[in-house]
């Protein structure tokens, strides 16, 4: 019988899993929780570190070989220690709940995932109504911390709180925190949000610093251009790129493997280029590897082909 090749995880994820054993943050973690935590770590998006992890509790339970009740206890353990946040609370006893888990800065630092190679790539902090781009938090002074107020995330800088997707303007680009607040007020007067303006023009803003950056943002706000749609389009493009990268990784991991439906009527081979070569009742077709194929594997509708 052919067996699946092991999934190859990015080196950053492998390092994060190794760091868990050494981190004082996880010194008191029960041994029975580790497999669930490893599954959560492996779902962290390296392109946008604090974007929501959308895997349901049922999926985490199946992948880790634990019960859904154990997964709920693990999630509560992580949440109680400030290692994850939830956008909405799952109802008690709801099997397979999928309230998104958001890795906090404390977790990312414990897993050595806050190095400079990922600074500047926009993460997504999602709410049910809207997905907006936000920057990946970099290593910061102890005086700065992430706080949560409902579905809005803040960075505390000195005595001021700023939306976390704007904190990089102060932390990395040298804009005064009070200046960011002034720009937020000006954006509101222009019936826009500063987050939309920054998200839509970030590639240009990163080249400026301090007063020049402040003046440039003021000019954008005074231009009366609508940045909301551009910011939304940028977020969609980033999400599409993330999905494409994920599918490419999976295609490389499954290259050369053959699968079949449970009734053996359909045979699917993943070729070296990531294409799916399908054969059913003597008919052949080729198509790109998609999420539907991965869903079929996860649900057991496709299994590794057994040699005759």
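^ structure tokens above, recovered residues below v
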């Amino acid at each position: 019988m052919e067996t699946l090749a092991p999934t190859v995880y990015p080196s950053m994820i492998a390092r994060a899993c190794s760091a868990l054993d050494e981190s004082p943050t996880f010194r008191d973690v029960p041994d029975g929780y580790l497999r669930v935590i490893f599954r959560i770590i492996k779902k962290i998006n390296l392109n946008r570190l604090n974007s929501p992890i959308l895997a349901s509790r049922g999926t985490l339970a199946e992948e880790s070989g634990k019960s859904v009740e154990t997964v709920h206890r693990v999630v509560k353990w992580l949440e109680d220690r400030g290692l994850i946040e939830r956008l909405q609370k799952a109802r008690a006893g709801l099997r397979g709940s999928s309230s998104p888990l958001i890795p906090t800065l404390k977790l990312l630092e414990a897993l050595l995932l806050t190095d400079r190679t990922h600074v500047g790539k926009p993460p997504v902090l999602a709410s049910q109504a809207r997905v907006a781009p936000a920057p990946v938090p970099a290593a910061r002074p102890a005086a700065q911390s992430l706080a949560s107020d409902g579905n809005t995330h803040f960075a505390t800088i000195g005595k001021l709180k700023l939306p976390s997707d704007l904190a990089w303007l102060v932390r990395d680009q040298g804009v005064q925190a009070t200046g960011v607040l002034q720009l937020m007020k000006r954006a509101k007067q222009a019936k826009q949000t500063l987050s939309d303006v920054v998200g839509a023009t970030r590639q240009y803003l990163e080249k400026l610093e301090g007063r020049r950056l402040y003046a440039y943002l003021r000019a954008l706000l005074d231009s009366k251009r609508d940045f909301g749609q551009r910011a939304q389009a940028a977020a969609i493009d980033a999400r599409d790129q993330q999905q494409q990268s994920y599918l490419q990784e999976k295609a490389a991991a499954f290259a050369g493997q053959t699968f079949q439906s449970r009734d053996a009527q359909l045979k699917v081979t993943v070729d070296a280029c990531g294409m799916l070569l399908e054969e059913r009742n003597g008919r052949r077709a080729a198509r790109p590897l998609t999420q539907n194929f991965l869903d079929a594997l996860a649900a057991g509708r496709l299994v590794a082909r057994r040699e005759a």
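DSSP finds eleven helices and twelve strands in the chain.
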